[in-house]
Amino acid sequence: xVYFAFALLFSAPFAGAAADxxxxxxxxxxxxxxxxxxxxxxxxxxxxxxxxEVSPGWPPEALKAQAVASRTFAxxxxxxxxSQGYNLCATVHCQVFGGLESEAxxxxxxxxxxxxxxxxxxxxxxxxxxxxxxxxxxxxxxxxWNNSESPPYLKPIRCKFCKSGKHHEWEASLSEDDLVAALVxxxxxxxxxxxxxxxxxxxxxxxxxxxxxxxxETQMISGKFRAAVGANLIRSAYFxxxxxxxxxxxxxxxxxxxxxxxxxxxxxxxxxQGWRYKKILKFYYPGTNLQKxxx
Length: 295
Known about the structure:
By secondary structure, this protein is an alpha+beta fold. It has helices at 42-53, 60-76, 105-113, 141-144, 176-185, 222-229, 264-272, 277-284, and strands spanning 2-9, 24-30, 33-41, 88-89, 117-121, 124-125, 130-131, 169-175, 194-199, 208-213, 216-221, 239-245, 248-254, 262-263, 289-292. The strands form 5 sheets. The protein has a 4-stranded mixed beta sheet. It has a 3-stranded antiparallel beta sheet with strand order 6-5-15.
C-alpha cells in the first residue's frame, strides 16, 4: 500500500512549513507500505482538494468560500503530522487530496480569485471546520468533540439555506445483529437483545447516545456512535426519530456531517441567492477577519 502526505511550502513565516523547492517528492517506508511525501505550494494543494470537498458545478461564490475555508484549515492544521515528518495527510483526517487529475477549471479559478486569502481570529488562522449539510442548525464543537473549545465564531447558528440540499434529511435501517456487531467491533460492551436506543437532544443534535440491552445500558458520545455504526449510514447526530422495529432499528435525521462551521450546501444555497463569498464566510464564521498573507 502507498500512503500519501504533504509538506507545504511558504515564503511567509508559518510555523511547521517546509522550506524546500516545490514539486519535490520524498519516499520512505512505513508499516504496511510506502510513504510518499510531496512538497507543494499551498494554493496548488487547495486546487487538488477543492473538487473533493464541493461540486465544481456550484456557483463561483460558493467555491470561493470553500477555497478560503480549506486554505485556512490547512494552515491551522500544519502541525498535525509534524512528528511524522510532514504537515498534512491525504485523507479526511486533514482534507481529501485527489491529485493533479482531480483539478477542475471552476475550482481552480476560485482558488486563484482568493489567492492567499485566509480567515484569522486573534491574528491566528481560525478553525474553519466545514461539512455537507447542517439540517437547519450548526453545532457547538463542545457538543461534538469532548473537551473541545468553543470559540465565538463557531457558536451554533440557524441556517435556512441548506433546506433544498440533497443531504438535508436522511434515514437508515439496521438489523439488531449488525448494530451489535458494529458496537462490539468498536469496543462497546453490549449484550443482545437490544431494548432501546435513546439520545439527549440539544438544539436538535444529540451529544450522548444510550443503548439499553440485556446487560444494562451503555453510554457513548454521539460521534462515537456514528463512527461505530457508520457515518455514511448515521449521517449526523441530528436525530428526528429512533424507532425499534421487529428485527432492528429505524433512524431518521437531518443533515450530513459533524455540523461545526460552514454548511457547504448552505453556502451553495446562499450563492444561488446572490450572496458574495465574503458575506457567506461572515455568516458561518462571525467575528473572523479575512486577510491576505504575503507570498
